[in-house]
Amino acid sequence: MRFVDNTFIDLPDGWEDRAESATEALVDGTIVADDRSSVWKALKESLEELSNGRCWYCETNIPRTDNAVDHYRPKGKVQGVEFSEDEKTLARYNLNPEHSGYKWAAFKHENFRFSCQHCNEYRKDLQGTGGGKWNYFPLVNEPERAYDELDEDNEVPVLLDPCKRLEWRLLSYDKSGVPFSRFEKDSPEDIKVRLSIRLYHLDQKRLNEGRVGQWRLFKPLIDDAKKWYLKKLRQDQGADACFEKELRKVGMWFHPKSKNTYLGFLVYQLEQDKDKDTLHPWIGELIRTVG
Question: Residue 145 has what pLDDT?
Fold first, then answer.
């Protein structure tokens, strides 16, 4: 996961009027949200462009599909979910009172996320690991759940949101690319990270392998930049230009138009560099330009 700035989405002519009309009909009960699915599907390409075709949750490149627009706050009946006592499985429960969905947000472009089906739809992989956001929307404090638009700001969602500038930085990874929580057990941050990993299925084996594979391709660029930076400090001839050349190569990996994936993992690996605060302060500066 990495930050996706959805502030400025390219809206087609007349889209806002259609979205407002659909919201009114949904709130009045004359339609169900899927009756007007054309409203959010009309923004699919605009959402896709913001991440150059990558899922906003797991960063994989998404093949063409009609189900690529997720509603961060569910448009339909909300299902409760928490870890079971053994913390190896998920336990569903019915909300009380029942929540029929965030109808006021069903056609808000701010609520749309470009998502792969693996992150969005409930499923199990061959190892039996459950994943998929589905109609789950757990909160840090369930009694603060909003049943009215005016109360939405009272909620503190558990699920990490790629459109919040700093939330993706809560994720940590081991050397095998497996995400984990670095926070105190059962703290709000710990719950957010662990449940997000499970519901977005961020610990799927292929994702873990993909992260490591990208780092193996990316690390030689960092090593070359380090070499030329030290030569630059030594004032070797041509070292300044060579360092800038290598830094440009590194920067291209993080460009929004880049096809490279798992950039959140690459940033985390850079943050673990033992020399970034001493010999190579440019690494810290590079990290700050990413998020």
Answer: 97
